[in-house]
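Forwarding these from the shared drive since the link keeps breaking.
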Amino acid sequence: MERDIQIYLNALPTCHQFVLIAAPEFGEGEYDCGITVPASKLLALYREEIERTIIFSWDGKVMRRALPLWREQASINDGGVTSLPKDAFRDIRGSIPDWVKAGKAQVWCYSCKNWVADITITKKDESQIGNYSRSWTDLWY
């Protein structure tokens, strides 16, 4: 596993002071904005999330062990922004709205070209299928 972790780390860009954790090009078009967190806080947020989930794939295990090492090598005072690896986005995508609501992540509006501090999140087309499956669309204002 150590060899695979090193290969994964070598493929990543340098981690800068801020990490872009969501953007229009991530996922399946969930976001029309950019969302960043300080690299110094990313590790704690990421660990909270991965403790709630179990992963069985080898690549997922490698990524989860590599990302803390990547973050530890960050240039934490350079003012730069690095994109979170897209495979890591899948791990945290469900927690991003909670991080925004709690003020742990910052939102950049591409339309107005400003940081947005006052965000209201509402649910649209919420449905429940059985006891364990729910779906909805979050609308951000």
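-- next protein --
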Amino acid sequence: MLKIYSLYFYSMLLALDVATSCGVCYNVRKKLYIGTVVGVPSEQYIWVKENTKFNEVVIEELVSYNSRQPKILVNLAQRVGYLYHRFVEENIPVRWAHPGSWRKNLSLIQSKAGTRQLQISLKETFKVALSLDEVDAVGVWLFGMQLNVADIESYKIVKLGINRV
């Protein structure tokens, strides 16, 4: 029983907002690492595996309103599918977070305006500027951890920056 408790207590959750500029957020104890990885999905996956620590992944679900342009929507679907499959192949538990669900969890407006609300809240709380991709990843992480912004005020934020691969 102790082993299960310690695994839960030290759960390291990786949250991804998948795109050309992939938002990344993960935790190790009371540190929250936030950044972006820019590149093709195979190189993004390699970067994530080599530079982050996690034992579970939550990916923001792709929904049709992510883009009104079919070519962009197909590109996003391929990226999400590639990363999802790579984690599954490695036997890493993967969950989905619908954008509307994580925004509702944080009592935000149900659109990109909700992401901007969260961006402002995080800047006020942590005195750190985050891109919209990074903010989406934080929202997905909060949803995956079943936390609110107030729950992470004791966390230290570590910026990973923009990583081009």
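The first strand starts at residue 13 and ends at 17. Residues 10 and 22 are 25 Å apart (CA to CA).

- D.
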